[in-house]
């Protein structure tokens, strides 16, 4: 009787925006499942501090397409082909369009839209060639409906939803899955990016009024979606705290 219990190593997973919040929680979740990781963030000290095994950490801004692609090539040389990317890097700069600095609009679209596309492009050709892979794009409920002071942020996240669904149609015939994760309010550092102090205080008061999602809740949803059989795509998962009405 064959008593060999050795199992094949798990494939490489890539996570952007991995230094805190949802990205860090997802890194811990996927590492616990046995996946080697490529963790990308601008604050490399924070991702190194996670101390996860079989992990390559690189200080990369997702708006730099060459840096993203180069890090993926480096990780694949170590751990084999990327089977999963979690495009989590994002910025939320809330404000009123009439008063918000235009460079904040540009930053949101650069990171939330162009940066996401850079992540997709870095892994997608290989996934298509191999006939399998999973792209998970972290969006927001603000990519499905509108809220006060979210005009440009919502625009960037509506773009994520639209691009994800169209991309799914492009690659479904190649065996590649595309999943959109749309969380409601989460206890992360995202609000700290907002520079309008009045808007920030109003949103913080809302968060303080209910029990919002923890990053681990979203990471669990990401893990659940990825662990489905490759023939099954959970196209969109929308999750929010039970107490969050809108």
TrEMBL record:
Q: Which EC main class describes this enzyme?
A: oxidoreductase
The cross-references to InterPro entries, in alphabetical order and at most eight, read: NAD(P)-bd_dom_sf, Sc_DH/Rdtase_CS, SDR_fam
EC numbers for this chain: 1.-.-.-
Q: What keywords does the record list, in alphabetical order?
A: Oxidoreductase
GO MF terms here are: oxidoreductase activity
For this chain, the family text in UniProt reads:
Belongs to the short-chain dehydrogenases/reductases (SDR) family.
Provide the protein name. Answer: SDR family oxidoreductase
Q: Which organism is it from?
A: Streptomyces hesseae
Q: What is the lineage of its organism?
A: Bacteria, Bacillati, Actinomycetota, Actinomycetes, Kitasatosporales
């Amino acid at each position: 009787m064959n008593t060999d219990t050795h199992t094949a190593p798990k494939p490489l997973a890539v996570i952007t925006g991995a230094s805190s919040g949802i990205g860090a929680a997802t890194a811990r979740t996927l590492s616990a499942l046995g996946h080697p990781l490529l963790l990308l963030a601008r604050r490399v000290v924070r991702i190194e501090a996670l101390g996860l095994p079989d992990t390559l950490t690189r200080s990369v801004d997702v708006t730099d397409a060459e840096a993203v692609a180069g890090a993926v090539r480096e990780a694949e040389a170590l751990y084999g082909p990327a089977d999963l990317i979690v495009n989590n890097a994002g910025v939320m700069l809330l404000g009123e369009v009439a008063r918000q600095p235009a460079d904040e609009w540009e930053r949101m679209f650069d990171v939330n839209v162009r940066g996401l596309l850079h992540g997709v492009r870095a892994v997608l050709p290989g996934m298509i060639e191999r006939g399998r892979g999973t792209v998970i794009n972290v969006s927001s409920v603000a990519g499905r409906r509108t809220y006060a002071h979210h005009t440009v942020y919502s625009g960037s996240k509506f773009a994520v939803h639209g691009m994800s669904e169209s991309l799914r149609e492009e690659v479904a015939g190649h065996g590649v899955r595309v999943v959109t994760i749309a969380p409601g309010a989460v206890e992360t550092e995202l609000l700290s990016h907002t520079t309008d102090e009045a808007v920030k205080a109003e949103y913080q008061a809302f968060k303080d009024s209910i029990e919002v999602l923890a990053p681990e809740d979203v990471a669990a949803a990401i893990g659940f979606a990825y662990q489905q059989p490759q023939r099954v795509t959970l196209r969109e998962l929308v999750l929010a705290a039970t107490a969050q009405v809108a």
